[in-house]
Design goal:
By secondary structure, the chain is mainly alpha-helical. 65% of the residues lie in helices and 2% in strands. Strands 1-2 form a two-stranded antiparallel sheet. The longest helix has 37 residues.
């Protein structure tokens, strides 16, 4: 199917997104719709996307998923198209001030994020219901996809759990972007540090350290528009005293300072536990052949 086939036309499109210029044609939106569609397919797989698009019955349990999907595609496409709309408006001698352009862009970013959060949260709640049949006649669901299975192997499995340790506005959309960072930091930094400990305090500190390290990496690697709204707000307001890189480095240093503190706490707990273990297992008695006189 073509990306634009998710909508029947411009009238259907504007049911899911606002702020479209009156003289915009559906054909002009095509490239933005196509790009947004490909981005969403990367997160939910092409099979899930097509399965939802094939839902025509309003009584189907998947129909709400289709509505969320159409909202995500429309708001994402309009966000991408916003720069062209601004150029068109300025070219028609109906110029925008910079602050007006920024407000419009912020509106579209927020709308897109909210739509994606709803779509991904709904998909998780209905993972076994979204089904399709492959070319061999085998039935599959979202639960069978690599995207879903790989997430089950992560120490932090949801946006809500991540938000418990570090506020990301409980954004499922952002959580989908950082899963590779979670996997990398956990395997390379956290596992060697906790040394297989099952201590609940250690594991809690390890997860907290994991989330802060992931955020530190995201702050340095991601574009500001790819960060949760609360962090975007900080960059646009609190951190505007210096350059963008200075703001990123400042926040990175704050996050890593907390990480260093928790690393020290974990090391202290494990050191004490190791010492206690050695005392409990001391068999330095006279009837032991390894007994020594000190």
């Amino acid at each position: 199917m073509k990306a634009a086939d998710i909508f029947t036309g411009l009238e259907d499109f504007i049911r899911y997104a606002d702020g479209l210029l009156p003289d915009t044609t559906y054909e002009q939106l095509g490239p933005s719709i196509r790009t947004t569609t490909l981005n969403i397919m990367d997160l939910i797989t092409p099979e899930v996307y097509i399965a939802l698009c094939g839902t025509e019955n309003a009584d189907s349990p998947l129909y709400q998923g289709l509505e969320f999907l159409k909202s995500a595609v429309a708001t994402g496409a309009l966000y991408k198209y916003a720069i062209f709309a601004t150029v068109k408006r300025n070219g028609a001698e109906n110029s925008l001030y910079k602050y007006q352009h920024e407000e419009i862009k912020q509106h579209h970013i927020d709308s897109y994020w909210k739509a994606m959060d709803r779509l991904l949260a709904w998909l998780d709640a209905h993972a076994s219901d979204v089904k399709w049949t492959d070319s061999d006649g085998q039935e599959h669901s979202f639960i069978d996809t690599d995207i879903y299975q790989e997430r089950q192997l992560l120490p932090i499995k949801s946006a809500e759990e991540f938000d418990y340790y570090f506020g990301i506005d409980k954004s499922s959309f952002f959580f989908s972007k950082i899963q590779y960072l979670i996997r990398t930091v956990w395997q390379m930094k956290i596992l060697p540090m906790i040394r297989g400990s099952k201590d609940e305090t250690v594991l809690d500190l390890a997860k907290r350290s994991l989330c802060y390290q992931v955020m530190a990496k995201a702050v340095m690697q991601f574009d500001v528009t790819e960060l949760p709204r609360s962090i975007r707000y900080d960059f646009n307001h609190e951190y505007t005293q210096g350059s963008s890189m200075q703001a990123r480095e400042k926040l990175y240093a704050q996050l890593m300072a907390d990480v260093d503190s928790w690393t020290a706490s974990i090391d202290s707990i494990l050191t004490v536990a190791s010492g206690a273990s050695s005392i409990q297992t001391n068999s330095n008695e006279e009837n032991n052949k390894h007994y020594t006189i000190l």
